[in-house]
């Protein structure tokens, strides 16, 4: 069995960040490392926007910015685990990172002595440091063919056992380049640290140590002070640095201690303040001040400690870099950051390793208070929150679930929905008070009725109503599910509900008070040169309403010469000559640019206009059912009839090409025209006239040559009929209404839209490649829930009008009707496809020349329309029944819409109620440790000094007993080492643990269940059903310590889940170790208690009765995962991989069946039929196949004579109730010979895998995994597809891979698998060949060979890397042609197959 791997969401945790001019030389950008991903953020409009993301297929150790002397755009230097140094440049044309130079500098791996663990830069100088002893300096220079590395010099520090803590270049003017390092001598038991100065001489290619001084042992970070001297005066070198240690900052100048200042103390952590370190800091800005005719430089720094507290440090120096003064003040408190990024001295970016990455604006730099003690600000004083980049790291656990509301009581549900709507509206009204247009729109003088909730209910009544309504919810099957993630640490943890799709920011929602339901809405500009829309036109069944947008307010226009407000409007549009067309059922109304009105009406009263379409110069009407009338705008401004045509079949839908990018020149500026229009409107309003005259564009020196009418005409018309066909008709004058092409469909075309895309791809391989060419994509929405997409040849004179094979996307069920609406998204044309349950956004990615189909996380609306306003450049206004909704679709960088439910402790495990979706979350944290490590170290250090003095005295007094003294000394050292270990390990952990009870649809009903016994910690959860009653089973431990892993006693408690969301304790039994994992199958409970596998039965008396157990520490170490499939038990061990047991419930026989021969550190596993999916903590994903089991093999049986007679009834003293088979198993362990589990697939992810689940999407399914860094990926079984297209005939069929001992059935399964392999060989071979050809054409940015990276632990097999295959889109045309020729295929065929694989995950 083979799989296709795709990453749905990239890792969200940021490890390193740096700023530089990566896109333009005058604009600052941010580059961030996410482990194996490099992301570029661009700073624009007071926010950070994700520009590009690229995979390294390797682990990024560190990165820095490289500034070249020529002043071009900055480069990025990256060190990877492959031992390569990659110099990367951002290419603006392809919008991707390009490697300009790559060189191997060290061996492969992550060894401590390999340089590249940290990298520091000064212009084009790079300094690479290892964890211990080794430093390397080099210079990057520009060469003819790119860039090169010269003067690469490595050096080893003088102490052999020294650790490099930090380093930086000095800002000096000397010919030689100098740098400082902080080194720790590991041979010294006190952990002595030193500040060392080195000189890098490029001429002789040597690194020379110049000076070394001893500094505070707690020093861990330092910053060099920027050079304030005039560059012309090179007499004084700047060697000023700031060294940060525990609770203080020290200023050094030329290796001399000048001044030490204490860091203000947080009152909440006054006792632990000495253990807090400064983890990051940045230079902000400097000021030049003249005092007594002397120049003084004030340098400002922003630093952060381990709690997230920000401090502003002010350092004052004179012209010769002599110390004047230093001060430090508390600034604000933000989340703990990996490194701070300051942009333009006004914006602060705070990336985080665990948590969201927040973007702030600096409101004020001045601080009036200077206190030694401070309380953190509850609200930001000096910073203003702008936006954040969401992160779900660390993603500890997850569960796939879909919850929907079942209408058991319609009246009750309506009341509840109305209450929720009123609460939401009142909340939005309070938030949007005193806000301008950029946060929403105010509707005035419009027939809008807002339901306001004046009386708010009390919190107690709300909670009671919410509790009662939870029973109205049930789980939803066979739909796109949500992913419920447990993420965060301590107080910053949360339950995050991830819905796959684009998040939406709703600006406003209003109800229309009208008897008629609105049908359609349009947005209209004043003229074709205007950037923004000025009017909304709403069509009803009997009337039309005109709304004017002005200064964020929307006014209703009662009288106007623009429209006929007393009839229904079918279509309206602004023409190329700024005239306006309104189409009704009886004809159309043409308001010309000179103010005159021309009307055209249907000749026969019995006929009316059924369908119509209009662009900037053409009108096509469908009169009756089969007749088409064609109108065309001429240069005189008239709209005459060109021709008419009678079809044989009834018309169902039609459309043609609409071009909106006008190129004619307007001699009047936009601002001037808009100001003139505003003045006219103000004058009219002042006169009190209700009649509104539509303002027309005033063009000076107008000439017809500026308007090319032919340029904006559609060359063809596409008609869909009830015969399940679409027909292309020519609209050219020489060949009008000629049938160009007919395409047969499976169902009638409900909606047709054509997207015009600006790209540089070549749609015709016979033509030369043209930059910024236009291509057209035809999107057809069918009545059976399918969306079909074709690529149209822009050269319509050729015979091949349709170039590619149809790309079919299933967006809904058979009864789902797909309607299409054209909008603008990210500066390009896009389409909203409305299905039965949700809407989808179809957008084009210029970076890889592919389409992206993403659901929109917003309730379905009846009609969508694009509009643009100041503050809302790309907005959408929609009609939903009698409501108007205005919202903004977020950028494509987000694949999920997130909903946060905060928690007070770190979540560990999650289970859900199988009926109503009620969730039980196990929370667990270590608060503090009684014997603090710092105090024990100080206690040890105090004892060392007198012992050394005694030994020296003994040596002076007894010279003859040297041998005995040496022995005594060795014994004393051993005793001291043992005492140190005891002091450091005998620490008692203090825990805080409870159970959170919550329903995702009611976040306010968060309840907590506390454990009654002291020091009781929860470790596992499971839900059991017995006679329509549900029980929560909890595994806990008392007096638990992690290092070493110990537990005084463990418990397994059974709680009954009441209707009021309470937990009622039923029974509680003792166990001898930590019950880390529990699994329930019917009435049986399978528990992993340390290294013991134990089976219980929940009887009718609501008691747990022990049935069987397996306790052999030589086989199992610590059980971390459990699952059961019929009689088979799959056990995941912490360090000994996977084991398979079989338990026969009738005879109570437990057999050790099979094991994984490979050693794996298992974190999670999932069994599906006869296949096992597992992940380990080193980032390896594997798939195994269970072997056949012979039930007659008696040598593998593990029996219990006591169980054959009677069940265990007393479980309070487990020491006296151990099974007799345990001794037998240990004595005869060599007799047990389990079968090896066959490994069929291996794949290296690079991040610790936390969960693996099976997810269903429409008729397909895939296996979803999550990692600790927030990555969400999928494995798609290739059996779902045939060799070319998606197999839609047998989607509902599944292969029953049950674990069964029947040999005949296994033989039949083997025969089926052989047939399946033959069907899937073509598809697997296709992607395998594509992957191998791409490895020859693409060199990864990490320097790793792709196959080597995916085979980090074991040789990769059975899984196709879809992420790597999708790099085919990033190749140039010649490379794509070469690969297509090798595969005997075309570029479009390869692209369509890759897109189909991506669509399956949807």
UniProtKB/TrEMBL annotation:
Gene3D superfamilies: 1.10.150.910, YVTN repeat-like/Quinoprotein amine dehydrogenase. Residues 411-436, 943-958 have a biased composition (Basic and acidic residues). InterPro entries: Beta-prop_RSE1/DDB1/CPSF1_1st, Beta-prop_RSE1/DDB1/CPSF1_2nd, RSE1/DDB1/CFT1, RSE1/DDB1/CPSF1_C, WD40/YVTN_repeat-like_dom_sf. Residues 520-887 form the RSE1/DDB1/CPSF1 second beta-propeller domain. Its main location: nucleus. Residues 669-687, 1295-1313 have a biased composition (Acidic residues). It comes from the Eukaryota. The keyword Ubl conjugation does not apply. Transmembrane segments: none annotated. PANTHER family: DNA REPAIR/RNA PROCESSING CPSF FAMILY (PTHR10644). This is Splicing factor 3b subunit 3. It comes from Anaeramoeba flamelloides.
């Amino acid at each position: 069995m083979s799989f296709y791997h795709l990453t749905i969401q990239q890792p969200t945790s940021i490890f390193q960040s740096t700023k530089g001019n990566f896109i333009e030389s005058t604009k600052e950008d941010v580059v961030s490392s996410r482990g194996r991903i490099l992301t570029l953020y661009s700073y624009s409009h007071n926010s950070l926007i994700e520009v590009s993301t690229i995979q390294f297929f390797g682990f990024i150790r560190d990165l820095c910015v490289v500034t070249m002397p020529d002043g071009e755009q900055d480069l990025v230097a990256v060190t990877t685990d492959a031992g390569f140094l990659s110099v990367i440049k951002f290419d603006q044309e392809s919008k991707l990172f390009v490697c300009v130079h790559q060189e191997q500098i060290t061996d492969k791996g992550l060894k401590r002595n390999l340089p590249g663990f940290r990298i520091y830069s000064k212009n084009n100088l790079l300094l690479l440091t290892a964890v211990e002893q080794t430093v390397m300096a080099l210079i990057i220079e520009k060469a003819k063919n790119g860039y090169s590395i010269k003067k690469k010099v490595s050096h080893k520090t003088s102490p052999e056992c020294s650790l490099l803590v930090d380093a930086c270049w000095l800002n000096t003017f000397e010919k030689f380049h100098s740098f400082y390092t902080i080194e720790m001598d590991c041979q010294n038991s006190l952990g002595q640290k030193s500040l060392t100065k080195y000189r890098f001489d490029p001429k002789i290619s040597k690194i020379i140590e110049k000076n070394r001084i001893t500094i505070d042992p707690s020093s861990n970070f330092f910053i060099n002070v920027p050079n304030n001297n005039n560059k012309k005066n090179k007499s004084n070198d700047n060697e000023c640095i700031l060294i940060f240690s525990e609770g203080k900052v020290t200023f050094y100048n030329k290796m001399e201690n000048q001044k030490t200042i204490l860091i203000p103390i947080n009152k909440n952590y006054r006792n632990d303040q000495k253990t807090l370190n400064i983890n990051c800091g940045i230079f902000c800005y400097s000021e030049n001040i003249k005092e007594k005719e002397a120049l003084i430089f004030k340098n400002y720094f922003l630093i952060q400690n381990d709690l997230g507290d920000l401090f502003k440090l002010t350092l004052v120096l004179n012209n010769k870099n002599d110390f004047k003064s230093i001060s430090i003040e508390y600034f604000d408190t933000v989340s703990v950051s990996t490194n701070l990024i300051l942009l333009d001295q006004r914006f602060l970016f705070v990336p985080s390793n665990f948590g969201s990455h927040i973007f702030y604006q600096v409101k004020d730099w001045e601080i009036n208070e200077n206190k030694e003690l401070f309380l953190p600000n509850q609200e930001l004083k000096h910073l203003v929150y702008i936006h954040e980049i969401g992160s779900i790291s660390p993603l500890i656990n997850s569960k796939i679930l879909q919850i929907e509301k079942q209408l058991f009581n319609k009246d009750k549900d309506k009341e509840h929905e109305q209450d929720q709507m009123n609460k939401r509206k009142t909340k939005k009204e309070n938030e949007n008070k005193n806000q301008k247009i950029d946060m929403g729109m105010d509707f005035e003088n419009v027939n809008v009725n807002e339901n306001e909730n004046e009386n708010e209910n009390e919190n107690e009544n709300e909670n009671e109503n919410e509790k009662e309504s939870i029973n109205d919810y049930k789980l939803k099957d066979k739909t796109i599910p949500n992913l419920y993630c447990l993420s965060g640490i301590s107080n910053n943890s949360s339950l995050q509900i991830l819905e796959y799709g684009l998040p939406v920011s709703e600006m406003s929602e209003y109800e229309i008070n009208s008897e008629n339901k609105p049908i359609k809405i349009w947005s209209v500009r004043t003229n074709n040169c205007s950037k923004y829309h000025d009017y909304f036109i709403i069509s009803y069944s009997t009337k039309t309403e005109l709304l004017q947008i002005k200064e964020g307010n929307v006014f209703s226009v009662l009288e106007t010469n623009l429209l006929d407000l007393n009839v229904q409007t079918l279509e309206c549009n602004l023409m190329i000559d700024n005239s306006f067309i309104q189409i009704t059922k009886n004809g159309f109304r043409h308001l010309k640019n000179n103010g005159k009105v021309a009307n055209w009406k249907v000749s026969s009263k019995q006929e009316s206009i059924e369908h119509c379409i209009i662009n900037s110069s053409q009108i096509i009407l469908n009169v009756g059912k089969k007749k088409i009338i064609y109108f065309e705008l001429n240069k005189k401004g008239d709209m005459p009839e060109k021709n008419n045509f009678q079809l044989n079949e009834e018309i169902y839908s039609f459309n043609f090409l609409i071009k909106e990018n006008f190129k004619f020149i307007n001699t009047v500026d936009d601002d001037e025209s808009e100001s003139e229009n505003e003045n006219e409107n103000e004058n009219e309003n002042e006169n009190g006239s209700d009649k509104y005259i539509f303002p027309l564009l005033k063009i000076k020196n107008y000439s017809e040559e500026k308007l090319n009418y032919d340029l904006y005409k559609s060359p063809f018309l596409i008609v869909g009929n009830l015969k399940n066909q679409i027909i292309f008709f020519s609209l050219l004058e020489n060949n009008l209404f000629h049938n160009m092409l007919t395409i047969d469909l499976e169902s009638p075309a409900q909606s047709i839209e054509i997207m015009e895309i600006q790209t540089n791809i070549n749609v015709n391989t016979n033509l030369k490649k043209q930059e910024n060419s236009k291509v057209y994509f035809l999107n057809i929405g069918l009545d059976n829930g399918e969306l079909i997409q074709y690529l149209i040849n822009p050269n319509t004179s050729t015979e091949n009008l349709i170039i590619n094979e149809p790309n079919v996307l299933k967006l809904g069920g058979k009864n789902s009707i797909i309607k299409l609406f054209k909008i603008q998204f990210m500066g390009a044309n896009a389409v909203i496809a409305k299905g039965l349950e949700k809407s989808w956004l179809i957008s084009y990615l210029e970076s890889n020349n592919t389409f992206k189909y993403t659901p929109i996380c917003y309730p379905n609306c009846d009609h969508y329309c694009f509009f643009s306003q100041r503050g809302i450049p790309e907005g959408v206004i929609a009609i939903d029944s009698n409501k108007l909704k205005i919202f903004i679709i977020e950028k494509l960088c987000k694949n999920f819409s997130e909903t946060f439910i905060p928690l007070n402790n770190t979540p560990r495990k999650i289970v859900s109620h199988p009926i109503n979706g009620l969730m039980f979350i196990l929370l667990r944290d270590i608060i503090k440790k009684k014997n603090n490590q710092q105090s024990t170290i100080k206690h040890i250090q105090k004892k060392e000094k007198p012992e050394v003095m005694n030994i020296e005295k003994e040596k002076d007094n007894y010279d003859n007993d040297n041998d005995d003294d040496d022995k005594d000394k060795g014994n004393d050292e051993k005793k001291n080492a043992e005492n140190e270990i005891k002091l450091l390990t005998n620490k008692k952990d203090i825990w805080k643990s409870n159970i959170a009870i919550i329903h995702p649809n009611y976040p306010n009903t968060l309840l907590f269940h506390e454990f009654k016994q002291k020091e009781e910690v929860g470790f596992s959860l499971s839900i059991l059903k017995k006679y329509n009653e549900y029980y929560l089973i909890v595994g806990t431990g008392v007096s638990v310590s992690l290092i070493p892993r110990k537990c005084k006693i463990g418990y397994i408690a059974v709680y009954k889940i009441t209707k009021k969301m309470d937990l009622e304790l039923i029974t509680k039994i003792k166990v001898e170790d930590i019950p880390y994992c529990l699994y329930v199958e019917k009435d049986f409970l399978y528990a992993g208690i340390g290294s013991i596998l134990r089976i219980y039965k929940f009887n009718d008396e609501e008691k747990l009765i022990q049935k069987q157990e397996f306790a052999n520490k030589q086989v199992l170490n610590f059980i971390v995962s459990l699952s059961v499939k019929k009689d088979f038990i799959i056990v995941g061990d912490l360090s000994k991989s996977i084991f398979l047991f079989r338990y026969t419930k009738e005879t109570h026989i437990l057999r050790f069946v099979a094991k994984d021969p490979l050693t794996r550190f298992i974190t999670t596993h999932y069994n599906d039929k006869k296949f096992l999916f597992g992940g380990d903590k080193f980032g390896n994903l594997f798939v195994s196949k269970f072997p056949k089991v012979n039930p007659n093999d008696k040598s593998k049986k593990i029996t219990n004579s006591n169980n054959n007679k009677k069940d265990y009834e007393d479980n309070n003293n487990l020491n006296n109730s151990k099974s007799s088979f345990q001794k037998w198993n240990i004595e005869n362990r060599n007799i047990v010979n389990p079968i090896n589990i066959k490994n069929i697939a291996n794949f290296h992810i690079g991040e610790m895998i936390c969960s693996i689940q099976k997810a269903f999407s429409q008729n397909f399914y895939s296996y979803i995994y999550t990692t600790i860094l927030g990555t969400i990926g999928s494995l798609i079984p290739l059996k779902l597809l045939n060799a070319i297209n998606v197999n839609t005939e047998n989607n509902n069929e599944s292969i029953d891979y049950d674990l069964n001992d029947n040999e005949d059935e296994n033989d039949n399964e083997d025969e089926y698998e052989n047939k399946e392999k033959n069907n899937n060989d073509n598809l697997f071979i296709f992607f395998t060949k594509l992957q191998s050809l791409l490895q020859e054409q693409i060199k990864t940015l990490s320097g790793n060979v792709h196959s080597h990276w995916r085979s980090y632990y074991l040789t990769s097999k059975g899984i196709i890397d879809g992420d790597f295959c999708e790099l085919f889109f990033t190749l140039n045309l010649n490379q794509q042609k070469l690969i297509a020729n090798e595969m005997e295929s075309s570029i479009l065929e390869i692209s369509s197959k890759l897109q189909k694989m991506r669509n399956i995950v949807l």
